[in-house]
């Protein structure tokens, strides 16, 4: 029985076609995986399905009924539930309140808490989703939050569940638990759309795989009758060739942390007694599930955070008075995790953005005045050298695509030939070409003798590029391993927080 | 409904949107004029005539524009860095207090020395007054909107206290007003016998300086970066808090010059009605100019024209002169809306 | 010195404190609703002015007192609609729009006042709300007179706090409002319109602010004059922060503040002119700034406060 049918869905954002004539069916009790790279249009498609966006063309039928476009309420009423990649929970409210939100008429004089509490405990025992209804969401771990998200959908009697990159924030063990829950849901007659760009998960969990590539449906396969290699080729459009890594002799120690801890700040983990040395001519990969202290470590190297205890050394010299500018002065290039919020100033021009780290020094500055000619000249050089597609150096950087924005950030960071490079998720959300470009630039920096720290949640990226790998979990670092020393499975164990001594 | 960014607007479009905002303002004001039982055409004719219909009217408009240029500049530079200085009124009064304290004979110096010293002192006082809220913002995370607003009330009471105490004019027949500043502390008139004074020239010069700072200097670049995206600015190594502090000093200093120029150029002494809300009107002036310092001169003259013209009109046509305040507030709201539509397009689905 | 302490035990002092607190309570609850839904409403000062005028003018033109309160609330909601239209779907700066709404509301009020009463030199008076002593309770010494011998609008202010608290914490609507101010995508994902919730909150909040203004012309005094709000709106914004966005705490803040205000007036009479009276008048504003500084560090702001929301954006 077909529960959901998408016909000819097309969505454009200005000149960009995010979804191009996509059609498929979902059957009762079936798990479809929607596979595709970042930017392939998976999330856009699901946002249309859930009513956050309105498709330019095409329509959606749920249980034989046409779904009103652009209205999450209609999707919810039709029995569609969605677990968003970025959780849609209000931290200031309890689990129960988050789940009950919007399930009763807004004009009721009183929220029926006891009814809600009964239903939640029923559902959580039925499907193995343990939560404490009265706990504040702010106090929950990422895995618990995801359980709340799934409960939100079940509480509304969802028959179709969409999960957008649900494993991105989970440890391998939590991922397994999630998969067990999904099996139970399917056994109860729910249908699931599972969005991912991770091949092994898709193979493990789905009945059928739909592959999206630059907005189009590139292929459909029955999971039992396909291979990872075939899916990878469909997803990327060509045989994936791992970057060629030439041997480079390891040089002197350029940057070192000695038993550094940071103060607790915000929601992410902080660092406990971390030691790490970066050598010239070497890429160190930092693997880990997000939120385990990567932000603190990146902030420390970038200069936005200070050590609470321990020593930080650049070329063997203790550094003090740490700040972003001090980091830059010590020859540290930084590629931030979030290029929109942190890497660029969207409403300023390309020129103004590329000089942001060097505007105080010659040739851009003379006695407090900026030399816009020199700045523009520099921007034009970067646009040429880094193959950036942009209308002019005066264009607001907001108008550029993610890949071109990242190329400019790379250019800004790498142009001064820095000795130390911090690359935090440098390839996230980019298309294949741009990813290869970014990787090439990092390898170039390594070849020239720079020490590179690559932080990524993509284990394949880490394994492909890194000379040494360290794993971060709950703010602690594992011992490093050389190229090929640890299997992916062993790294996964470390990511889950199992120490090698105990294992 | 969604807003989607547009590519850079054409020059014609950048002009068309402010004009549309002014048209909307005129339309709304016309409705009020009709409600008052007068004809919009004759009322707007009278406003225009009162603002620019004669040499006297024009000079009066420029005189009124002078403090508005200063407060408009103060707001324009502060808002660029997203430092919400709503306290230009208080900074204006502090500037006036300093002018009176130093200008009533305390410093026996020739005009060529006395006036620059008073100006600098007034600017320093205004700068320090805004430094307080800026410090509370950067150190304690206290929203500067509320603190600068509250300071307006505190400073006005402080001025009232001074005018009934140490600064009270002994010859003032008991009125709460200060003595007149000495002749050497007075700005000369631009045309003998007319009210327009050299404060206007200083204001225009200040606008040029502010424009150069914003467009050409490191500080201006830093202020814009901090205003657009403080997190990215901090990451890039821009000292955000220090930039906000410098912005506060610059903005407070500019607003204080309004008080200096009103006392030293026009009124001669300090009273509690020195400013009919110049500090608040400065916000409108700055927004109409889209925070461009040179544009501030034009928009200050425009806003001053509305006020001066409305005063004249009110006497002749019997429409309350508060219509000017209504128009100015409407212009502010329609202008920010117009700027939005010049940069974003609305998609209904 | 003894006299200064004795003031605290007089009924008249507490009666005054509660009377001073009443308009602040209305307006603080109004601002709190707006901010809980994610919108800073700096139109408060102007909206209180509108309310003060609209309520008074309705009665002056022959309407009864409660009609006046309703008209004030309606006028406030209209300006709330203006504010919300510009800040919520259009996402304009809440700072600039708020100041703009205050300037517009104030000047429009003055324009209409002058239009309606062109010739008056002293503001005309109305017959304001009279105290309604509650039988029995009002006989309790000191407290009884302060709490149970006030005008009905004061009782309404206290009822408003209870209603706001109930709505925010006990009803489905309140959940949606609190979520809209914390993480609007949570609201949209559950099929509720963020724009609708925020606009509704701003309109309802503005209506309360206007009633706060009307209290001044219809209960505390009996006529409308220019600049009578005199920064009370800004003080309410400080009170919301001081009350950590919680109705109960904000109520305590408003009463403490009003008690201090009533106290300084009495202290001023005692001081016999040694200290200039302006110093006492400054105290409420200084106190507001101090309150902000004290709590700002540990304040837990609604996380989406002042951040515009676009549908489908996360």
Descriptive account of the structure:
The complex is a heterotrimer of chains A (503), B (349) and C (314). Chain A has two domains: 2-236, Rossmann fold; 253-495, 3-Layer(aba) Sandwich (Rossmann fold), CATH 3.40.50.300. Chain A has 17 helices and 23 strands. Chain A has helices spanning 42-49, 72-77, 95-100, 113-127, 142-155, 172-187, 199-205, 228-236, 294-302, 324-329, 339-343, 350-354, 372-385, 402-414, 432-447, 459-465, 488-495, and strands at residues 2-13, 16-27, 31-36, 57-62, 65-66, 80-83, 160-164, 191-196, 208-213, 216-222, 253-261, 274-279, 282-287, 309-314, 317-318, 332-335, 365-366, 369-370, 420-424, 451-455, 468-473, 476-477, 481-482. The longest helix of chain A is centred in the middle third of the chain and has 16 residues, at 172-187. Chain A starts with a strand and ends in an 8-residue tail after the last helix. With 349 residues, chain B is mainly alpha-helical. Chain B has one domain: Orthogonal Bundle (ABC transporter involved in vitamin B12 uptake, BtuC). Chain B has helices spanning 11-35, 40-52, 55-80, 88-103, 111-140, 144-164, 199-216, 218-228, 230-235, 240-267, 278-288, 293-317, 323-343, and strands spanning 2-5, 344-347. The longest helix of chain B is centred in the middle third of the chain and has 30 residues, at 111-140. In chain B, 56% of the residues are buried. Chain C has 314 residues and is mostly helical. Chain C is globular, with a radius of gyration of 20 Å. Chain C starts with a helix and ends in an 18-residue tail after the last helix. Classes of the chains: A alpha/beta (503), B mainly alpha (349), C mainly alpha (314). Chain A binds chain B through residues 13-14, 54, 69-70, 302-304, 323-325, 327-328, 334, 336, 341-348, 352, 356-357, 359-360, 365, 368-370, 372, 391, 394-396, 398-399, and chain B through 4-5, 7-8, 216-219, 221, 224-225, 228-229, 231-239, 349.
Write the layout of secondary structure elements.
The complex is a heterotrimer of chains A (503), B (349) and C (314).
Chain A (H helix, E strand, L loop, with lengths): L1 E12 L2 E12 L3 E6 L5 H8 L7 E6 L2 E2 L5 H6 L2 E4 L11 H6 L12 H15 L14 H14 L4 E5 L7 H16 L3 E6 L2 H7 L2 E6 L2 E7 L5 H9 L16 E9 L12 E6 L2 E6 L6 H9 L6 E6 L2 E2 L5 H6 L2 E4 L3 H5 L6 H5 L10 E2 L2 E2 L1 H14 L16 H13 L5 E5 L7 H16 L3 E5 L3 H7 L2 E6 L2 E2 L3 E2 L5 H8 L8
Parallel strand pairs in A: 3-8, 3-9, 6-7, 7-8, 13-20, 13-21, 16-19, 19-20
Antiparallel strand pairs in A: 1-2, 1-4, 4-5, 9-10, 11-12, 11-14, 14-15, 17-18, 21-22, 21-23
Helix pairs in contact in A: 14-15
Chain B lengths: L1 E4 L5 H25 L4 H13 L2 H26 L7 H16 L7 H30 L3 H21 L34 H18 L1 H11 L1 H6 L4 H28 L10 H11 L4 H25 L5 H21 E4 L2
Helix pairs in contact in B: 1-13, 2-3, 2-12, 3-7, 3-10, 3-11, 3-12, 4-5, 4-6, 4-10, 4-11, 5-10, 7-8, 7-10, 7-12, 8-10, 11-12, 11-13, 12-13
Chain C lengths: L1 H5 L4 H26 L7 H17 L4 H23 L6 H23 L26 H6 L3 H19 L1 H11 L1 H6 L4 H27 L11 H11 L4 H25 L5 H20 L18
């Amino acid at each position: 029985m077909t529960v959901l049918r998408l016909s000819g869905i097309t969505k454009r954002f200005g000149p960009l076609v995010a979804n191009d004539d996509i059609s498929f069916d979902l059957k009762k009790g079936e798990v479809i995986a929607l596979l595709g790279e970042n930017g392939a249009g998976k999330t856009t498609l699901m946002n249309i399905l859930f009513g956050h966006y309105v498709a330019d063309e095409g329509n959606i039928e749920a249980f034989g009924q046409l779904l009103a476009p652009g209205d999450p309420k209609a999707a919810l009423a039709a029995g569609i539930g969605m677990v968003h990649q970025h959780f849609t929970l209000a931290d200031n409210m309890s689990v129960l309140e988050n789940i009950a939100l919007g399930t009763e008429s807004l004009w009721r004089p009183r929220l029926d808490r006891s009814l809600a509490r009964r239903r939640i405990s029923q559902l959580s025992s039925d499907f193995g989703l343990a939560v404490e209804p009265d706990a504040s969401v702010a106090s929950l771990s990422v895995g618990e939050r995801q359980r709340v998200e799934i409960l939100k959908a079940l509480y509304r009697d969802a028959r179709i569940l969409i999960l957008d990159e649900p494993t991105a924030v989970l440890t391998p063990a939590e991922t397994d638990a999630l998969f067990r829950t999904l099996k139970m849901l399917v056994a109860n007659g729910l249908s699931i759309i599972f969005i991912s760009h991770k091949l092994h998960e898709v193979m493990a969990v789905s009945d059928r795989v739909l592959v999206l590539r630059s907005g189009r449906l590139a292929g459909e396969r029955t999971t039992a009758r396909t291979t990872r290699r075939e899916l990878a080729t469909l997803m990327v459009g060509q045989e994936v060739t791992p970057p060629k890594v030439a041997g480079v002799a390891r040089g002197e120690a350029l940057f070192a942390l000695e038993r550094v801890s940071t103060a607790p700040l915000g929601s992410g983990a902080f660092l406990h007694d971390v030691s790490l040395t970066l050598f010239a001519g070497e890429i160190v990969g930092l693997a880990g599930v997000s939120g385990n202290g990567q932000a603190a470590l990146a902030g420390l190297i970038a200069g936005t955070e200070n050590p609470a205890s321990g020593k930080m050394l650049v070329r063997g010299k203790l550094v003090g008075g740490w700040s972003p500018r001090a980091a830059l002065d010590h020859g540290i290039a930084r590629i931030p995790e979030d290029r929109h919020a942190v890497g660029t100033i969207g409403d300023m021009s390309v020129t103004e953005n590329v000089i942001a780290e060097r505007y105080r020094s010659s040739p851009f500055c003379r006695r407090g005045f900026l030399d816009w000619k020199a700045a523009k000249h520099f921007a034009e050089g970067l646009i040429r050298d880094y193959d950036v597609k942009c209308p002019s150096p005066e264009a607001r950087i907001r108008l550029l695509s993610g890949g071109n924005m990242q190329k400019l950030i790379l250019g800004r960071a790498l142009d001064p030939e820095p000795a130390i490079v911090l690359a935090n998720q440098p390839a996230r959300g980019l298309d294949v070409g741009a990813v290869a470009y970014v990787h090439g630039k990092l390898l170039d920096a390594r070849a020239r003798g720079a020490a590179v720290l690559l932080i990524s949640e993509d284990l394949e990226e880490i394994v492909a590029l890194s000379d040494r790998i360290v794993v971060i979990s709950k703010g602690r670092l594992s011992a490093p391993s050389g190229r090929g020393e640890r299997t992916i499975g062993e790294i996964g164990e470390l990511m889950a927080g199992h120490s090698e001594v105990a294992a | 409904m969604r807003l989607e960014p547009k590519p850079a607007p054409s020059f014609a479009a950048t002009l068309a949107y402010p004009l549309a905002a002014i048209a909307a303002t005129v339309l709304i004001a016309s409705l009020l004029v009709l409600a008052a039982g007068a004809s919009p055409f004759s009322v707007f004719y009278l406003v225009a005539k009162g603002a620019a219909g004669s040499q006297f009217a024009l000079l009066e408009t420029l005189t009124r524009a002078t403090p508005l240029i200063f407060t408009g500049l103060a707001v324009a530079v502060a808002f660029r860095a997203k430092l919400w200085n709503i306290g230009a009124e208080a900074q204006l009064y502090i500037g006036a207090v300093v002018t009176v304290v130093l200008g009533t004979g305390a410093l026996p110096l020739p005009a060529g020395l006395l006036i620059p010293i008073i100006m600098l002192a007034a600017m320093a006082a205004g700068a320090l007054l805004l430094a307080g809220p800026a410090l509370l913002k950067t150190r304690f995370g206290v929203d500067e909107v509320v603190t600068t607003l509250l300071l307006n009330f505190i400073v006005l009471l402080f001025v009232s206290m001074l005018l009934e105490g140490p600064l009270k004019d002994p010859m003032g027949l008991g009125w709460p007003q200060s003595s007149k500043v000495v002749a050497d502390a007075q700005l000369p008139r631009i045309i003998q016998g007319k009210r327009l004074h050299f404060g206007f020239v200083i204001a225009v010069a200040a606008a040029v300086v502010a424009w150069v700072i914003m467009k050409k200097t490191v500080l201006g670049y830093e202020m814009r970066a901090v205003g657009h995206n403080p997190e990215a600015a901090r990451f890039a190594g821009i000292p955000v808090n220090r930039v906000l502090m410098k912005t506060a000093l610059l903005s407070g200093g500019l607003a204080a010059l309004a008080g200096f120029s009103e006392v030293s150029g026009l009124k001669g002494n300090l009273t509690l009605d020195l400013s009919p809300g110049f500090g608040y009107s400065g916000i409108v002036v700055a927004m109409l100019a889209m925070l461009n310092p040179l544009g501030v001169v034009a928009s200050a003259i425009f806003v001053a024209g509305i006020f001066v013209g409305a005063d004249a009109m009110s006497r002749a046509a019997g429409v309350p002169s508060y219509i000017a305040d209504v128009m100015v507030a409407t212009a502010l709201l329609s202008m920010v809306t117009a700027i939005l539509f010049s940069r974003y397009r609305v998609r209904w689905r | 010195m003894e006299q200064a302490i004795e003031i605290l035990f007089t009924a008249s002092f507490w009666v005054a404190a509660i009377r001073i607190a009443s308009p602040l309570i209305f307006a603080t609850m109004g601002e709190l609703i707006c901010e809980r839904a994610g919108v800073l409403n700096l139109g408060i000062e102007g909206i209180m002015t509108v309310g003060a005028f609209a309520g008074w003018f309705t009665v002056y033109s022959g309407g009864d007192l409660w009609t006046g309160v309703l008209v004030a609330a309606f006028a406030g909601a209209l300006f709330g609609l203006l504010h919300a239209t510009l800040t919520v779907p259009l996402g304009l700066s809440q700072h600039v729009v708020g100041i703009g709404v205050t300037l517009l509301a104030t000047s429009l009020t003055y324009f209409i006042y002058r239009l309606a009463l062109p010739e008056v030199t002293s503001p005309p008076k109305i017959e304001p709300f009279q105290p309604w002593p509650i039988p029995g309770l009002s006989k309790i010494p000191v407290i009884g007179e302060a709490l149970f011998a006030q005008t009905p609008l004061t009782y309404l202010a206290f009822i408003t706090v209870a209603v706001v608290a109930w709505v925010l914490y006990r009803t489905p609507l309140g959940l949606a409002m609190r979520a809209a101010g914390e993480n609007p995508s949570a609201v949209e994902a559950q099929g509720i319109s963020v724009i609708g919730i925020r606009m509704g909150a701003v309109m309802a909040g503005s209506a309360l602010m206007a009633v706060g203004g009307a209290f001044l012309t219809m209960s505390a005094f009996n006529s409308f004059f220019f600049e009578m709000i005199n920064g009370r709106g800004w003080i309410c914004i400080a009170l919301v922060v001081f009350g950590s966005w919680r109705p109960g705490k904000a109520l305590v803040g408003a009463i403490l503040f009003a008690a201090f205000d009533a106290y300084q007036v009495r202290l001023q009479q005692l001081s016999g002119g040694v200290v200039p009276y302006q110093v006492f008048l400054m105290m409420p504003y200084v106190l507001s700034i101090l309150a902000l500084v004290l709590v700002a560090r540990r304040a837990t702001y609604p996380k989406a406060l002042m951040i515009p929301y676009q549908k489908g954006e996360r």
